[in-house]
Fold:
Amino acid sequence: MIRIAIDAMGGDFGADPIISGVIEALKETEFKAVLVGDSNAIKPLIPQPYLKNIEFIEATEVISMADGATDALKRKDSTIYKAVELLKDKNVDAVVSAGHSGATMSLATLRVGRLKNVSRPAIATLMPNSKETATLVLDVGANVDCRSEHLFQFAIMGEAYAKEILGRKEPKVGLLSNGEEESKGNEVSKEAFKLVSRLDSFVGNAEGNQIFDGSIDVMVCDGFMGNILLKTSEGVADAIGKIIKKQVKKSPLAMAGSVLMRKVFKTLKKQVSYDEYGGAPLLGVNGCVIISHGKSNSKAIKNAIFQAIKFANSNINKVIEEELSHFAR
Structure:
């Protein structure tokens, strides 16, 4: 049975939505949930029938968003430290955390270690597109400064994820740039273009709008650009929703039409919500680590767990190592 270590207290809203997400996941599929946290606080939140599929690992500390990422290495009694140690010691198959993303990434990289030939792990996230298939974007925050070889590795890892997890047989990989022409981009992206061109899946430079029109499956960029892209997209989606609500309230005719459009609005909200994807995998570490949004609700945690199970049941890390070894010769 798949064993998932869950940082039970690391999210912005404490244990409640995390435990609720675990219970929702257990209702739909069987796995062993290893909850890391204060059992006196989290055990009362769990209905008796689900306790048979749950283990508790005691941890009294929580890394807050105000703490530095590297501080986590010294805080050995923190929930995320103990969760990552379980993965390092192969006592679990995956880790899910909605806590401090920098701490999770640092601990996973330094304690669990990187895959062979991976210089830097990358955070990958799914973003909605008009074809309703979602586009994988990496890196979205792990590496602010990158060299061309790092972007090349991100391309290989993204391609592997698209094939093994998303089921795309022939994924299209693009390099985020300020134009589709080969001459566009900064010095790093121009050099990366030459390296990524060795992949059959590479379609060339791609502009930001192509993430959302579904013309590519994997968009590669450094963590600085990727994080700005991610936060901007979240802000735009939120703003559009608020604008629509305001305009509907101003017009009686629009209010009448909104009843008919409710299903459309519901579908739109579902597509742009991070709840649907649950979390972002940290690709390139020697295990499965899913980093969830700090504001994750129970649905997001449930989907993060499903993502972890799918990852743990796949051969993605083996595929990444094999591909990187091929190009390292």
